[in-house]
């Protein structure tokens, strides 16, 4: 899911951007990235449906998912983190959703709910709120490298951070032998889709549903792909 974010103070020296693999110590930062990416250009997104009211509980749940044994798309091990002058600025993940060790979002959420001791009513309500989102889930291809949870913190927008971290995540897929990379974005996020087009992605499929529109304020999702 989606993208971009303007810069911190621009002093006499140019900011130094580096990209590294994420570690468990990045979990708090990654939770913020995942939440921001899930919202994209919208007022609310995927995680606002999971946890409706409590912002702290929402971030706590996402942070937990980054370090659980369940290797979902939220797990820290798939992320690259971009730093600007040593400060974490942005991140993105790459993964194969059909890999044997990969756990889908529903399984990871269930493990997170269980760990946090959510009641049956809380869990049921969360899944009910998520149902509209599932109406437009992207259909990733077998054998594709998927890029997701791409975001840059607001203070670092305009420094090319997203491009740097995306390049590293895509290269990670290429180095593993993947020949196709896919990414999904909310329909209407023109800045994200334009950025992906500049990298070489082209739209391949759209999923639209009125329930998705009512719940999130976007008609649905667009899937984009690029040959490696």
The largest beta-sheet arranges its strands as: 1-2-3-4-5-7-6
CATH superfamily: Gcn5-related N-acetyltransferase (GNAT)
Topology order in helix (H) and strand (E) letters: EHHHEEHHEHEHEHE
The CATH topology: Aminopeptidase
How would the global form be characterised? globular
State the major sheet.
7 strands, mixed
Query: Number of domains in the coordinates?
Result: 1
Number of strands: 7
- Indicate the radius of gyration in whole angstroms: 17 Å
Bin the helical content. 25-40%
**Mean of residue pLDDT?**
93
Structural overview:
This protein is an alpha+beta fold. A hairpin with a 2-residue loop joins β2 and β3. The model is unreliable at 1-12 (pLDDT under 50). It has 8 helices and 7 strands, in the order βαααββααβαβαβαβ. Helices cover 39% and strands 22% of the residues.
Features:
single chain; 228 residues; alpha+beta; Aminopeptidase; seven-stranded mixed beta sheet; globular
Brief account:
The chain is an alpha+beta fold.
Describe how the helices and strands are arranged.
Blueprint: E1 17-21, H1 27-39, H2 46-50, H3 55-67, E2 79-84, E3 87-95, H4 105-115, H5 120-134, E4 145-152, H6 161-175, E5 180-186, H7 190-199, E6 202-208, H8 210-216, E7 220-227
Parallel strand pairs: 4-5
Antiparallel strand pairs: 1-2, 2-3, 3-4, 5-7, 6-7
Helix pairs in contact: 1-3, 5-8
């Amino acid at each position: 899911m989606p993208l971009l974010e303007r810069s911190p103070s621009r002093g006499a020296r140019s900011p130094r951007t580096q990209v590294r693999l994420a570690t468990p110590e990045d979990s708090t930062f990654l939770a913020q990235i995942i939440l921001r990416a899930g919202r994209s250009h919208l007022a609310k997104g995927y995680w606002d449906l999971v946890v409706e009211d409590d912002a702290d509980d929402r971030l706590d749940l996402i942070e937990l998912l980054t370090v659980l044994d369940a290797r979902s798309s939220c797990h820290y091990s798939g992320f690259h983190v971009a730093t600007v002058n040593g400060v974490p600025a942005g991140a993105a993940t790459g993964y194969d959703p059909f890999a044997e060790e990969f756990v889908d979002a529903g399984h990871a959420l269930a493990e997170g709910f269980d760990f946090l001791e959510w009641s049956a009513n809380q869990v049921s309500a969360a899944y009910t709120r998520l149902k509209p989102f599932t109406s437009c889930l992207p259909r990733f291809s077998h054998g594709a490298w998927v890029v997701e949870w791409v975001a840059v913190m607001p203070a670092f927008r305009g420094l090319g951070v997203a491009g740097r971290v995306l390049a590293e995540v895509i290269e990670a897929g290429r180095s593993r032998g993947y020949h196709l990379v896919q990414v999904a974005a909310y329909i209407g996020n023109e800045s994200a889709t334009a950025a992906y087009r500049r990298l070489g992605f082209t739209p391949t499929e759209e999923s639209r549903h009125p329930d998705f529109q009512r719940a999130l304020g976007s008609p649905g999702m667009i899937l984009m792909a690029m040959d490696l």
